[in-house]
User: Fold these one by one.
Assistant:
Number 1:
Amino acid sequence: MSPLIECEDVWKIYRVGDVEVQALRGLSLTIEQGEFVAIMGSSGSGKSTLMNMLGCLDQPTKGRYRLNGIEVGNLKPDQLAEIRNQQIGFVFQSFNLIPRTSALENAQLPLFYRGLPLKEQRAQAAAALGRVGLRGREDHYPTQLSGGQQQRVAIARALVTSPSLLLADEPTGNLDTQSSQEIMKILETLNRDEGITIILVTHEVDVAAYAAREIVIKDGQVLSDHVTQPRPTASSVEG
Amino acid sequence: MSAFVWLTILTALRILARNRMRAGLTMLGIVIGVGAVIAMVSIGEGAKRAVQAQIATMGTNVIVIFPGVTSASGVRGSQGSAMTLTVSDAVDLKKRIPLLSDTGWAKRDVMQIVYGNRNWNGPINGISPSYLTIRDWSFTSGGPFTQTDLESAARVALIGQTIVANLFEPGEEPVGAVIRIKNVPFRVIGVLAPKGQSAQGADQDDVIFIPFSTAERKVFGTSFIGSVGAMFGSTDQVEDLPAAAEQIREVLRARHRIQTDKEDDFTIRTQVDIGKVQEGTSETLTMMLFAIASVSLLVGGIGIMNILLVSVTERTREIGVRMAVGAKRHHIVMQFLIEAMTLSLVGGLLGIVLGVAGAKLTTLIAGWPTIISGNVILLAFFFSLVVGLFFGLYPANKAARLNPIEALRYE
């Protein structure tokens, strides 16, 4: 079985006015199914660009990026949207819930674009909220929830499609220590018990410590890549 | 797909309900536009119907023939000033043209009418009995005079409602009374049923009919016996009017010995011609009102576009999130289009209510006739839909073209 993520000599070059910015410079990376990876790096290291690309929000200028064996570089915007909908769940630093919309409807959103019947959307979204410990909060609006709860709704939204990849971009950046720990425990459980691949961007060492593998990015390239914990056997998904 | 559309409509309604004030103000343009279209067209249609009713008072399938103008040393008189048409023309026309079911003739002059101690100046019409049937005159009391009255130049008169109102006490029975026209006594034998205004705005009930022969010999003092002020013909079918008019023209030219290169010494008008002119006027009025009202619909549409553009900017981040979780371009386009159309449709419905109420109120207050047609309501509804679609398209496309990364980062 092919690896979940394969980056080969990936370049990303922007033009900002007359200045050419090389955000990624020949980066290569392989991530297997079921891994829990932390990506670290200072601001401007290119880690945000990498995340956008791994999340199929962006495409490489040069080089190859394959997700589940699909070459992402040549896809059209609607095909990228399809892949995001089918394979990827996003968790953002600022939660990015849709305002004045209930927790259930927020969690429903990806299924809504999948065109599932309404009943199924609701049932699956309710189940996802249950998995992050928000049973009974389905009708709450984002403003009625704490930061930690909002982030859990966001995780439920990411989970609801059973994605092969969960991308968490500084998921604890806006949270207090206790909420941060709760969120990280949820992610850890999802990885360990359900085998969901998680890629986590952070600059906090104690948050990164939840991951089994740590990749440091600098100047658009991989600076270091090492396993911090032995991978628990339960997380390996045999196909 | 249907779940998607349904949920998007619900979402749109919720977003509109949340910003009630803003939605209301945005819709106002459409409400006023649709309301104005419906009210204006209803007023225009009412005016048109009123004109049609007035034209119908002329009679059924009527052809009017006026004499030409006099011309002395290049100075031309007014229409009908020549005395080129005669009673024998009218009689001959009926004989020669089978399409004509009847012909009649009339001559008029304004004269003083006296009854008791009251007097009135009104138009005296000397007519053939056939004139009454051609012009569809009916009676509220008494009846018409006969061919015998015409031949014997009887001093009998038929009077219109305006004359009754001006010469008689309320409740007094005019039939049997003797009135004097230019000092000649006439016995009233019939009172005419009211016709109201003519298509030209003249009071048709201000009228007295007396036999043509009596008028010629005893009242008008005509020097040229047999000349008429106008001739009338009628056909059984409205489709026959143009053909009948053409045949009348040929017969009259032959009778008057007009050379082929000379102009007619008479003018022929059919009821259809007169109707066309009048209806054309009210048609123009309706179109003008419609055009003016459409401008407010356009302004309303621009209002919707404006608010949607604001909304797209405000919700840039939301659009980014929707894209991140898998919304395709058409999903985003649909979302904003449905919002635009919800706005314009709700506005359109309110506008219909406003327009119908406005039309009814116009009838109630100003007394103008209005006709609210289902077609106009449908058209206005369809229009508001198109406005929503058209003016929603640009903001919707703008939203769908956002770059998800930038949209997510938008503060």
Note: Residues 83-264 of chain B form one domain.
Number 2:
Amino acid sequence: MKIKPNLKVNESGFLFDPTTGESYSLNDMGSIYFRMISEGRSPDEIRTLVINEYDVEASTFDKSFLDFESRLRNLRLIENE
Amino acid sequence: MEKKKFEYPVIKRFQPGMPGKSGIQPTLEPITEINNIPIARLQEEYGSPMFLITENTIRDTYQEALQAFKSRYPKVQFAWSYKTNYLDAVCRIFHDEGSWAEVVSGFEYNKARENGIPGKQIIFNGPDKSRDDLEMAVRDGAYIHLDHFDEMYTLIELTEELKMKAKVAIRVNMDTGIYPKWDRFGFNYENGEAWEALKKIAQQEFLELVGLHTHIGTYVMSTQAYAMAAKKLAELALRAEKNLGKKIKYIDMGGGFTSMNTLKGAYHSASDTNPGFNEYADAISFAIMSAGFQQNELPVLILETGRAMIDDSGYLLGSVLATKRLTDGRRATVLDFGVNILFTSFWYDHEVHPGCEVSDYAEETTLYGPLCMNIDVIRQNLSFPLLKKGDPVVVPRVGAYNMTQWMQFITYRPNVVLLDRDGNTHIIKRKEGLEDLKRAEIIPDFLKPKE
């Protein structure tokens, strides 16, 4: 999954998509996922980083990551796969 | 090193200028305990889902209603509407407070008798009273509310046969200025049918005309409709005394008061629009007291309020089974209770609260039940926090009708637990098991295994 270019989430979790004019709000965890996906990290890499740093079970992380990816897809924030 | 707290990742699109019709939907506060008992403890002990009924809410609500009417009208009697919730423990609390029983079937009648209520404190409504039911009521001296002429003639035959007097009232339907106009129960006021019924009763040796009853509707938000109904019944009562020489001892205004649950499609929430007991009491009391009765001969005012009396005391405690994403991007949360046990979700937008602490983030969510049916929707669209599998949820105000109209469908109906005034919990209806459901089934011999 690759996020569209020119998309950056700021420190307060605000995201603006200049190609559509839409703006978004992300919570802290959403911002972290978004940044790591933007940086091109693999799902396995993100999984390891999050599980090491946060109090979350692997299965919960997996479900949350799948859901987040599907949400990005749904909001058309990713490049065509 | 201690790990950081994880929260579900959220991304939400801003939709400026697109609030709901009442502004931005509020996020519902978590309910993590009821009367200081943690939700987690209740679910651990009694399973999920489960119903919880709080005794002190029943008693407080009853007293609030009683005071509202007693402070405005000298003779008031409540009768507990069995069909609203006929679990024996619930009925007995109402009876303990002083309520009579209002029943609408032989089954409910027998329940009331088994709850220790004498016939002279039972009001027998409903269109379906069998000959046996009527005989039982006559022998007990119960108040029989006649619904149609067929029933009246059956009762006339029966009482002549028994040579026993029956205490009767007629059910009167009428135009009270609201829609829908309920004209299916009893005899119509405007077209003279009710008066004809009274004249017929007055001619009977074994029928004693004692009251007039009406049930103008359900969830009636207009207090003026009650005022009009009370005025019409009072007029009939005065006419019966003047023209038939029959003194009407009571006027029964039935039920139909709203609770604070919001109807589906309502523009404002119920708490902003619905009358309370004081408003209903004002309208009804004033109408009767100004109708022309002598002050010392006012009829007793009977009320069969069900929904408004019990809704607040009931909670449904459930859990999240799964979360998923619908094709349009909306979140869907599947709960472990559906329309089978939360029957009132067909007409209410029930509040559904998280039963645990949650983050401030919420998403537009559809809440589904666990039934394998498309109609099993608890809430079509609400702003709901991101819960995960196993998290508890709490639906308040479910005390009315759910524990009588619930359906046994593909699974067992859950435990119903009473939380008493001292904080102790009691199962008042245990969760069904396979044997409960099989007990009434009979397998024909030809389908049994061959010896």
Note: Chain B has two domains: 33-52+313-432, 55-311.
